[in-house]
Amino acid sequence: MSFFGLSTWVLVAVLGGIVLGATVAGLLVGRSLSARSDRLREPVGVLQAALVGFMGLVLAFGLSLAVGRYESRRADVVAEANAIGTTYLRAQTLAEPVRSESLALLREYTRTSVAISGVVPGTPAHERTVAASAAYQDRLWALAGQALEAAPADSAPRLYVETLNEMFDAQADRVYGLTNRVPTAILVLEVAGAAVAMAVLALHLATLGQGVPTVLIASALVTVLLVVTFDLDRSTRGLIRVPPTPLVDVGTSMTGPPAATAPGPP
Predict the structure, then answer these.
(1) Which of 30, 92, 203, 244 could form a disulfide with 258 if both were Cys (CB 3.0 to 4.6 A apart)?
(2) How far apart are CA 250 and CA 240, in angstroms?
(3) Where are the transmembrane segments (predicted)?
């Protein structure tokens, strides 16, 4: 089962249905066994304590993985924005006509980088956007080669080529980071562990004839925690997204006139 392929509200419904369904099942079984609660109280109590502890450990582990990947994706956006900004500044030191063509391409390249943040990885729209970005990269690299060929001894073209390569690498890191998600096996373990733990907890409380509202509230809280964990790993389609603000700001800074004028003839 691919949780990433589900829409946000379908994901909420699936997780809520699994956890709350297991809780209700535990309550029903517990009520049917309430007549033997004296004999079952101790073993079921030990079992539910162990399972609740296991559930807490698994949920914390899964949440830490999701948060780590989310923070890494935010850092990738900042790194790419910085690389684009540096490349744009260095492109201003190139000789014409490479200078003007490169600056125009860098503006389009930045718009494409922003668009990558709004498409879901693995979809046709994502593939088209990445392909368009790769086409801009090819054209920028070709122009950089022309700049080097025209002035092989100058430092400006060589510095530009260096940062251009870093810019390409930064986008590659970001694109691949979007597909670096928490393994499905861990997500399934989280859901299964939460469902079993809540079912046994509900069973234990039902055999005692108390705590029904409490276990339902606990199930809702566990569902919310699962949804947050899953949503952190869906940075382009969930409720918790990685904002492309640094890239948008860089693109905005390119709308004004270049800070440096074109170098004159030697």
Answers:
(1) 92
(2) 23
(3) 45-67, 184-206, 212-232
Residue type, 222: V
Q: Report the percent of the chain where pLDDT is more than 90.
A: 36
Measure the N-to-C terminal CA separation of the chain; round to a whole number of Å.
Answer: 64
Handedness of CA 19, 23, 28, 30 (dihedral sign): positive
Token digits of residue 210: 């108390």
Residues with Cβ within 8 Å of 261's Cβ and at least 6 positions away in sequence, in order, are 92
Tokens for 31, please give them: 């009520």
* 203-226 pLDDT tens trace: 877 777 666 788 888 889 999 999
pLDDT in tens, 99-108: 999 999 999 9
Q: What is the dihedral sign for C-alpha 25, 29, 31, 37? A: negative
Phi, psi of 259 (to 5 degrees): -70, -30
Phi then psi dihedrals of residue 234, to 5 deg:
-125, 65
Of 171, 132, 126, which is closest to residue 4 (Cα–Cα)? 126
Q: How far is CA 39 from CA 19, 42, 45, 47, 84, in A?
A: 27, 7, 11, 14, 69
Angle at 264 between CA 145 and CA 97, to 5 degrees: 40
